[in-house]
Amino acid sequence: MSVKINTVAKQLPKYSRTTADILPLLDGWLQGQDERFIKKVKKIFEGAAVDKRYSIMDPAEVFTATSFEDKNDIYSREVIILGEQVLNKALAKANWDPQSLDYIITVSCTGIMIPSLDAYLINKMKLRQDIVRLPVTEMGCAAGISGIIYAKNFLQANPGKRAAIIAVESPTATFQLNDFSMPNIVSAAIFGDGAACCLLSSHADDDGPEIIDEEMYHFYDAEHMMGFKLTNTGLQMVLDIEVPDTIASHFGDIIHPFLQKNNLEIQDIDHMIFHPGGKKIVTTVESLFSGLGKNITHTKEVLKEYGNMSSATVLYVLESIMDEKPQSGEKGLMLSFGPGFSAQRVLLQW
Fold first, then answer.
1. H/E element, 239
2. Which long-range contacts does 114-122 make (Cβ < 8 Å, 24+ apart)?
3. End of a domain among 201, 223, 241?
4. Is 162 in the same domain as 27?
5. Fewer Cβ within 10 Å of end Cβ, the chain: N or C?
6. Residues of 312-345 as b/e, b for ≥16 C-beta within 10 angstroms?
């Protein structure tokens, strides 16, 4: 049974700032710190390869002392708004009726909501009462592709059905005001907020690139490398400096056996749809891909224009490639990394 990605749409929050606009806010946050440290932090922001980012709250609010409860309340309110907006946008783009959806997957790791986002969307958009729900909450940046994998498996087992994956993330809601560690600083420099929706179908009449294969790859003994620690002040970023080198050391095992299983080599892939985790990860993966004759131009552009929006970001890369309308027969490889530590891969063919 053929499963296709019919549509991808994005939705940006109402607030935005260039990196140049954020630098003055750092002066207030870093007041009293060593001057060399302040220069180092600003250099990290300036060198993060992110020109602009969006947020669910005014950037001044991000640097204001508020409780975890207050920030999470903003998160809960705004992700419902963004989720409804992006799902409506995707359905309109696909010309699908909301009632035609059989499966809804919502993805987010940057706040805590119970009930999860999907319950609110079912009520607000009057989705079917028998729709199948799956909230994906703890897979970080990899979860956009994870959602595609889960939807594909459901649709493959259920011909003639449709699924929506809605990824809404607000890393700015996790910023720790009293944490001057490198993980908190680096994440603040590279992350931004955003939402995306991906519509999949096993309807014979629906168009889009077909999902040929999908696979997860789990790194042993690497749980410490990436994630969040739940503290009294919120979700504190965990980000190990060894992440890029760890990815590089496993890169061949992640890419080549997966393609070989499908009788392909990297030379057969026309479109690299890679999650822009941050400048160092992008640089590492770019050097690995360039050695194989491939580029990740779309990935770098998404990082530059929006920053890393966790699970939603790879869907921005996918949308930019789908908007170029690849030729029939062309192939794409989706790849993202997330807590666990794990890599998620999806093979597409137009």
1. strand 234-239
2. 117/79, 117/80, 117/83, 117/166, 117/168, 118/166, 120/80, 120/83, 120/84, 121/80, 121/83, 121/84, 121/87, 121/166
3. 201
4. yes
5. N
6. bbbbbbbbbbbeeebeeebbbbbbbbbbbbbbbb
Separation in Å, CA 249 to CA 56, 125, 143, 237, 243 = 36, 45, 22, 23, 10
Partners of 338 in beta bridges = 342
The boundaries of the domain holding residue 63 are 4-201
The stretches of 191-273 forming alpha helices (DSSP H) are: 243-261
| Cα dihedral across residues 251, 292, 3, 165: positive or negative | positive
Amino acid type, 129: Q
The residues facing 46 across adjacent strands are: none
Task: Indicate the DSSP class of residue 181.
Answer: S
Q: What is the maximum span of the chain, computed from C-alpha positions, in angstroms?
A: 63
CA distances from 326 to 199, 269, 317 (A): 18, 12, 14
Tell me the average confidence (pLDDT) per consecutive run of 10 residues in the chain, 350 residues long. 94 95 90 91 92 92 87 95 98 97 97 96 97 94 95 95 97 92 91 97 93 94 88 88 83 91 93 88 80 83 95 96 95 92 94
Which segments of 191-341 does DSSP mark as H helices, in order? 243-261, 279-290, 297-306, 313-322
Altogether, the residues listed in the chain come to a count of 350
| Per-residue confidence (pLDDT) for residue 270, from 0 to 100 | 93
217 and 109 assigned to the same domain:
no
Q: Contact, 121 vs 84, CB < 8 A?
A: yes
- Helix H or strand E segment including 3: none
Dig out the tokens for 18 from the structure. Answer: 């260039």
Distance CA 54, CA 222 (A): 31
Q: What is the gyration radius of the CA atoms in the chain, in angstroms? A: 20
CATH code for position 89: 3.40.47.10
Q: Structure tokens of 327?
A: 């030729």
**CA gap 254, 335 in Å, rounded:** 9
Residue 112 amino acid letter: I
**Which pLDDT does position 162 carry in this prediction?**
97
Considering the domain architecture, whether residues 22 and 125 belong to the same structural domain is answered as yes
